[in-house]
Write a structure and sequence with these properties.
The chain has a four-stranded mixed beta sheet with strand order 4-5-1-10. A four-stranded antiparallel beta sheet has the order 6-9-8-7. Strands 2-3 form a two-stranded antiparallel sheet. Helix 3 packs antiparallel against helix 4 and helix 6 runs antiparallel to helix 7. Strand 8 and strand 9 form a beta hairpin. It is an alpha+beta fold. 39% of the residues lie in helices and 23% in strands.
């Protein structure tokens, strides 16, 4: 493991990486993906394939920075579902190398977000604020108090903001717990009137009952949230993927130039 991994572990923190997929498929991205991931790329439309490949290649590069192995050698899998024990739709995990690193990837349009922690469960969600039937959707996914808070807002924009604050917080919680879309979102109260972090109760078999949930800063038009175990109270650090990759490549090129000289 790298020094970056050890810092994250000792601080009991969470790193949040944000980025955006390229407009065209990068052969370098495709080269990092597993056979299963490449099959998913092959079956999708061109735009969807580029976004999937870009986000999953970025995820592998990020994980490699903690695990000290080439990104293409990392094997990813899933934990068994906490409800049904099915091995194909539980929480994501690193199957190789063996590690306590935990991560969660969320995508919306060309935007993606990755949360990384060590030794505790994390979930993240990002949404692009696309046009939705707020009134119709909210009755299906919001708890009574959340719905009342949303309807009390004075204009459509504020109602939309509350809806997506609720939506991303709920999605982050159910992704952290490992049940995803199988959960009844209306049963999870994420207290949208509070800026956060807020404590949220959500129980699944063999997992934590209490979660610490917070909004994440994003570009205009985007909404994002992080959920982690309530016992994990270390710092949350935001990291810019494109900037750090650029800095890494520049440093690598400088070293190569020095060796050539």
């Amino acid at each position: 493991m790298t020094a970056e991994y050890e810092r994250l572990r000792t601080q009991d923190g969470v790193h949040i990486w944000q980025g955006r997929a390229p407009d065209l498929l990068d052969p370098g991205d495709a080269a990092l993906l597993s056979a299963a991931e490449l099959e998913i790329v092959r079956r999708r439309s061109e735009r969807a394939a580029v976004r999937y490949a870009g986000a999953h290649a970025a995820l592998r590069r990020i994980l490699a920075g903690y695990l000290s192995v080439p990104p293409e050698r990392i094997r990813l899998g899933r934990q068994p579902c906490p409800r049904c024990a099915h091995p194909e739709h539980g929480r994501p995990r690193v199957d190789w190398p063996h590690t306590a690193l935990d991560f969660n990837l969320s995508r919306s349009g060309s935007h993606w977000l990755v949360a990384v922690a060590v030794g505790s469960q994390v979930g993240a969600d990002i949404e692009d604020g696309r046009a939705v039937d707020v009134e119709g959707s909210s009755t299906l996914v919001l708890a009574d108090g959340e719905l009342a808070h949303m309807r009390a807002q004075k204009d459509e924009k504020r109602r939309l903001d509350v809806f997506f604050r609720c939506w991303t917080r709920k999605e982050a919680v159910v992704k952290a717990s490992g049940v995803g879309i199988a959960a009844d979102l209306s049963s999870i109260d994420v207290r949208p009137a509070a800026e956060g972090p807020v404590r949220v109760i959500h129980t699944e078999p063999n997992g934590p009952d209490n979660w610490l949930v917070q909004n994440l800063p994003t570009a205009p038009g985007l909404f994002a949230a992080l959920a982690r175990e309530a016992t994990s109270t270390g710092p949350v650090r935001l990291r810019d993927y494109l900037q750090e990759i650029h800095d890494h490549d520049s440093h690598h090129n400088e070293k190569e130039g020095a060796h050539a000289a």
